[in-house]
User: What shape does this take?
Amino acid sequence: MKPFYITTPIYYVNDKPHIGHAYTSLACDVIARFKRLDGFDAKFLTGADEHGQKIEKAAAVKGIAPQAFVDEVSQSFRSLSDLLDLTNDDFIRTTEPRHVTAVQHLWKRLFESGSIYLGEYAGWYAVRDEAFYQEDELVEGKAPTGAEVEWVKESSYFFKLSAWAEPLLEYYAKHPEAIQPESRRNEVLRFIEGGLRDLSISRRTLKWGIPVPGDPDHVMYVWLDALTNYLSALGYPDDGYQFHWQQSIHVVGKDILRFHAVYWPAFLMAAGITPPKTVFAHGWWTVEGEKMSKSLGNVVDPVEMVDSFGSDAFRYFLMRDLSFGQDGDFSKTAFINRLNTDLANAYGNLCQRVLSFIYKNGEATIPTPGELTAEDHALVNLPAQLLPTLRTHIDNFHLNRYAEAIWQVIGEGNRYVDAQKPWALKKDDSLRMNTVLYNLCSLIKNVAILTQPILPLASSKILTILQAGNKDFSALEVALSPGQKIDEPQPLFAKHVV
Ligand code: ME8
Assistant: This one.
């Protein structure tokens, strides 16, 4: 099977997960699920970033040792998978031995290649961003991100990042797909063209990190540590990591693109490892027009959303409402309107009116069709014909268009029901009624196969009612068997009041 590898950032576990974390993880899940259904050996990784000053401070505030703190708080990130029905194959924590081994190995490779030297760092550090800033980068005494900074002057190991500006530009010229979307790629290229400074990659004044091999007075800079998770989860330094690595995609928020598209590929090239195939930076969610913040009390909690609306609904809204890559605003009114229109009225209604009709009036059995008209064929073939387009949408990260395209087919299905009126045919043309209902069952089965990546629970319910066996994309070509029993349909999506 062809390999495929997709990763989320590993999240800082200093606080609970919110809609932003859910968003990146969901996007990766939709893509990973699609690839598996499409026959790939797709590996999906997420995890927790547990070292560094930010975590050390958060643990100190709680009066707990850092290890005990991360053991506890990483659970809420791990449980996002159950909550949102994520199909990650692994959950990596940077405090695990397998990760420590990989990072120390990478450090040694960098050291042996002459890419690391000991010097002194004097400059600003923002704990919130875990990032170094020069004096000329500060804006009114703060980091450009608005984070507080503190002055740091200490002995430090440096990575010779300055040597990698040209090789990175050459690499990106040859690999236009390596940074997406294009606007973000241009931002990164302008940044590299401005010249790169050597990067401090160790701290002496910090204890909560991975010790530098051969000099345990230093711990590694948390970003060198964290970025390596993408390799350690594949078993690096064992050679087997290369199978998935060659098809690696890192999905990140735009806030951390520079770490992924400048520092990370430079570390890798210096260690003789190919950079990731693609880094995709998506946009930023605000809530009801405001930046999300604890002090405003407007942080959207995925647990509350799933409790009130179900995981499918939350998944659908996040994937449908926003063009992936653009910034977006979460508004509860828009959320509920979309659930009512697209899920309850369009998809739910199509399934309910067809399957309940068969269950009540057709002896709960898939009917035997007669001759199909040209119009019937056109309708029934829509989902399978859509697959190549959906493939393109996934490969181009056009996740909202994925849903949009399927909902056009659902709209066609509802128009067909309205035009063919099976309830009226019941009186005088049962053969035609059976043909119409058979066509609709075929359509619903195939639509449900295609909606699996976004709506895993509802799709599975539909496929179970129809007792459709195999559920990967090859099942689009498998016809339903007339005479087969169907289970009693239940409403799939609730309607909500705005
Ligand atoms: O940066 N809108 O972890 P982090 C959209 N540990 N996405 C958002 C978001 C928002 N409002 N808020 C957060 C770190 N995200 C590092 C990563 S990787 C080697 C180390 C998402 O917990 C988005 O994916 O601060 C963003 O990049 C990530 O959460 C930051 O998570």
About this structure: The chain has a mean pLDDT of 96.
